[in-house]
Amino acid sequence: MKKALLTIVLVIGFLKIEAQPYNWSNLPNAPYNGSKQDGIFFLNQNLGWSVNGSGRIFKTQDGGVTWLQQKNAPGTYFRSVAFVNDQVGFAGNIGINYFPGVTDTNPLYKTIDGGNSWAPVTASITGVVPAGICAIEAVNENVIYAAGRVGTPQVILKSTDGGNTWTGTDISSQCKMILDLHFQTPEIGYAFTGTSASIASSKARVLRTTDGGTTWSIVYTSTRNYEIMWKASFPTANVGYASIQSYNSATTQRYIIKTIDGGLTWSELSLTNSGAREFGIGFISDNVGWVGGETTGYETVDGGLTWTEKNIGQYANKFSVTANPNGSKTVYAIGLNVFKMTDNGTLGTTTTSIHLKNDLLVSPNPAVAGQYIAISLDKIKTKIVKSELISIEGKATTILFDAFYTGTQEAPFMFKLPNVASGNYILKFTDENGKIFKQKIAIIN
Predict the structure, then answer these.
(1) For residue 310, which of 48, 116, 297, 380 sits 20 to 30 Å off, Cα-Cα?
(2) For 201, phi and psi rounded to 5 degrees?
(3) Which domain covers residue 363, as residue numbers?
(4) Which one is predicted more confidently, 377 or 185?
(5) Strand pairing category for 227-233 and 240-246
(6) pTM for the complete prediction?
(7) Do 373 and 333 belong together in one domain?
């Protein structure tokens, strides 16, 4: 690679990301019990189920316009729900000795008739029986995982025969509570957890398995107490997000985490400085997504770099995203109420505000500290005489850095980022005429 220190000829524009028009709407006939409702799952844009802490399960077949109550079990706190097809599904119960009034000791229920009837699966569990279930992940019609719970204990349930039999595994050596799951394949998956049964000493933690839950490795642990992971969302195989629920009243800064390598590494991104408690998280693309909060929700259209308040109801605890035949996507969010949004098939696409004649395209973004980023341009007209990286979070002073020419058409100019702390930064370029061009970038370690 031939080095050309600060003598690269470029024309740079400014990339502006904007969301396309769409609306979230409160579904007036959706289930409501006067408090946070926890679980929702849709097989497609019309067929879905919701569950809540009052022991009720509801079904809709018309996209949330009308709902049918399928189960009413006082003393059961339904926390999660997932279906493998329109007949077979599972609902998780938080179990006793956590929330008051919960008397049901069965952690998991199964239906084989679309939710008309439900039966406990406790008798079919070998190994460790969980006290309660907070998350269910149906990888396919045969392989299903379920896990819990908040507040301890920490057990992973696995079925390889469609939920007929289950094996329970205690993973207390790596965490003390489990809040959510995501599996990319039957073997590769992630558990979103807390490190302690005591919130005061807990840190948020993500675990990874590559052997179907037999062994787990730690891929992320927060540095702050009073934190637990809450929910996760993977819009693509490589890009994923997860919300961190904080109970720390000494600080108002709140965070999410993001991966761009399929979950191998995670970086923290600032969400809000309001002190609000985070709940669910849902993304419709690599860049566009939402996080639920106590009084309102938050929206990003730039991959978590910036956030604005968005009315998706209070306590939006779980998001369900479906891909529709016409290319659009429908999102449901359940909390105090149930909210719904359908995009027009272009949500999250970019529009460009031209600064000169071409656009600045930096890839990848987020980028890894100490690694290379590429700027691809159509034309070359001016010479860059200064390249700077400026922290917008007070983590580093302005740093000058070098550029390298790769000689490839796909990535003609490479900039090696300095080894700086994870955070949000501004890339600033000055050309030979004194013109300044900027773009925001997230850097992870």
Answers:
(1) 48
(2) -115, 5
(3) 2-16+350-444
(4) 185
(5) antiparallel
(6) 0.77
(7) no
